[in-house]
Amino acid sequence: MTISLERTETIETGGTEMAEPTEQRKNELSLDELFERLRMATPEGYKVEIVKGAVHMTPQRDVHWQTIRRMVRALEDRFGMDVLVTSDVRITFPGEQNGFAPDVAKISDGAEKNEFGRWRYQDVEFVAEVISQGTAANDYGPKKTAYALAEVPVYVIADPYIGRCRVFTHPQDGDYKVDVTLAYGRPIDLTGTFPGFTISTDDFPRD
Length: 207
What we know:
Blueprint: E1 2-4, H1 23-39, E2 46-51, E3 54-59, H2 62-79, E4 84-86, E5 91-92, E6 99-100, E7 104-107, E8 124-130, H3 136-140, H4 142-149, E9 154-159, E10 164-172, E11 175-183, E12 188-189, E13 198-199
Parallel strand pairs: 8-9
Antiparallel strand pairs: 1-3, 2-3, 4-7, 5-6, 7-8, 9-10, 10-11, 12-13
């Protein structure tokens, strides 16, 4: 489901001169308003993201969650239970109106939230997305570009429909320079980026 929204914004200043907000701040405030308008209209059990200004709602599925769960467990096994890991938590990424909620995101140790109470994309070290039928174009397209622009070191896409993972590393100039495809059952070896970190895909469920 995709909903395109256009709006006109009027700000009352009460005669007080206001400093021109930065592009990043305007982008955050714009996304805040869109998400607030969507909050009451989102059906239960749906994930909501805004990708390049378009709203995408996708139903959460058992296979989806079981894959996420295995990735989070692998992160906890390697980095400990106190590792900063989020799932379906909004983070604003580069590009206009990119309010993503990655299926899995690892935040760097010692990171602090920004003035809006959200994690900064500059502190994201690992992102994983699990393909849904309606989101593949985003995951392989604008989201991959945004993650590369944000210089997220590792981006993993798990596709339960074909039983394969795509592993993108070495972001540079808005793209990933290394792209590896692995069939389920082959380990995702990330030791080049995170020493000692490998994700087993033996038990990744198929859809």
